[in-house]
Amino acid sequence: MNILTNQLYTLIKKEENQALIILGDETHPIFKAHFEGNPLLPAFLQVDIVSEIFGLNITGISRSKFMEPLKPLDEVMIRFEKRPSGIKARLLKQERTCSEINFEIR
Prior knowledge:
This protein is α+β, with helices and mostly antiparallel strands. The protein has one domain: Hotdog Thioesterase (Thiol Ester Dehydrase, Chain A, Roll). The chain contains two helices and six strands; from the N terminus they run ββααββββ. The chain has helices at 29-33, 43-54; strands spanning 9-14, 18-23, 58-66, 75-83, 86-93, 96-105. The protein has a six-stranded antiparallel beta sheet with strand order 1-2-4-5-6-3, covered by helices on one side. A hairpin with a 3-residue loop joins strand 1 and strand 2. The protein starts with 8 loop residues before the first strand and ends with a strand. The relative contact order is 0.22.
């Protein structure tokens, strides 16, 4: 776990192609900095969390789409599928896709 993700989330369950996490509360320094009064999980940390949980060596992002913010205490399901070009990850809450990121990996 890196310093930015330390205590940012709790891993509830992990399987081969998916994981369930719960984000920390609004007192975490990341949420205080991004943004005070309207805390949300920055996109770069979504990438870090996926990489950290699944042990991926991400070398690039070929496509990303952020449709709905992830906020403190959200329960987030991370699902990914391997593709010839890399990994496609989706971050969902209540079965709604919040983020979709295509990673290039080594």
